[in-house]
Each structure stands twice: as structure tokens, then as C-alpha cells.
Amino acid sequence: MNFPADAAAGDYPFRLRAVAINDPDNDHAEGPATTAKLGAGGGVVKKSLLWLWILLGVLALIAVGVLLYFLLSSGKPHDTVTNTIVDATPANDCKPGYVWRAASPADHVCVTPDSYKRVQAENGLADYRRAPGGGAYGPNTCKMGYVWREAFSGDFVCVEGDIRSLVAKENAEAAQHRR
Fold first, then answer.
1. Is residue 6 one of the residues assigned to a domain?
2. For the chain, how big is the Rg over CA atoms in Å?
3. Do both 14 and 56 map to the same domain?
4. In this structure, is residue 27 part of a structural domain?
5. Could you tell me which of 132, 154, 151, 130 has the C-alpha nearest to residue 142?
6. Which residues of 14-24 are buried (b: 16+ CB within 10 A; e: fewer)?
7. CA 56 → CA 46, 65, 70, 117, 140, distances in Å?
8. Residue 39 shares a structural domain with residue 109
9. What is the rounded distance in angstroms from the CA atom of residue 152 to the CA atom of residue 4?
């Protein structure tokens, strides 16, 4: 919309009117009233789209956050347990029906396949079960309700108390399950 060069700043109301060419005095329609705002420099004042840019910025930040979460959490532990088939190699000297516990690569205590699966799940949840920011026992401090598994010296994986007792029993019976 163009205003005359000497028009004063302010609001200018107007209404659109459509008329029939054959009978312009009697056959017409009017639109709703609206207002054009003329700014101090002689131009029309446009509504600010700042809110749109803020909304787009927030959505972009959310998208980046979600992307980073999935990229950084891909190697983190999950609450799911996978069914892993343990390959009984000739080096495995466990009796039939038993496999290495594998709480660490050097852990060759013979346990049931269910115990093996449980240990792998516990290893996967190790970071989740530690107290954020550490605590009385440094970075290996367990969250409330968990204790160290102690399958071997230096095993600081956090588990429930009854699991630590079960692991101690497995360690005590280790010789019975070897060939």
C-alpha cells in the first residue's frame, strides 16, 4: 500500500467494496473494516515476526538435543538383555551345562547359562547403577540399594545385595563345576 509523501503517521481505517458494473449504486458488497498503520518514516508498519524466529530456534535446539542424545547414548547401557548363545570352545573346561561367567575377560568361573546372561546384563547396567558424581567410594560408589558384585578383586559393578551373595556362592563352588 502506498501513502502520499506528506501523510502523517498513524492508523488509517479502510474497507474494501466490490460493485457490479451494471448497477454500482444498488449492487455492491463490503468487506470488514481494517486498518493500515503508517510509521514515522512514511512506510507501513509491519507486524514483527520475532516470535516465529524464536519458535524456529527453540525447535532447532530440541532437534539438536534429541540427535545428540541418540548419538551419545548409543554405547550406553540399556535395560534390555540379549539372548547370547555361549560358544563352548575347547579351552572352556566347564562341565556340561556350565559356561564361563565372564564378568570380565579373565573371569573363568563356571556358572549356568542363566547366570552368564545375568552377569552380562549387570555389566551393561554398570554405569546406570553408579551414583552420579561419585560419593564416599569415589566414582565407583553405587546408588542407594546396590552393592559391589565382587566376582573378583576389583569388580565394582553395582548389583542388589542378594546377587552379591549368589556370586560369592558361585565363587565358592567354582571347582565343582570344572572338568
1. yes
2. 37
3. no
4. yes
5. 130
6. eeeeeeeeeee
7. 20, 14, 21, 46, 42
8. no
9. 90
Q: Give the domain range for residue 20.
A: 1-46
CB of 110 within 8 A of CB of 159? no
Retrieve residue 144's grid coordinates.
Answer: 542407594
Q: Total domain count for the chain? A: 3
pLDDT of residue 90: 44
Q: How far is CA 124 from the centre of its chain?
A: 17
Within a domain: residue 90? no
Secondary structure of residue 17 in the 3-state scheme: strand
Residues 58-95: tens digit of each pLDDT? 999 999 999 998 888 765 555 455 555 554 444 578 99
- 76, amino acid identity: K
Collect the ranges in the chain with pLDDT lower than 70: 1, 3, 40-46, 74-91
Within this chain, do residues 39 and 61 fall inside the same structural domain, yes or no? no
User: Residue 69: inside a domain, yes or no?
Assistant: yes
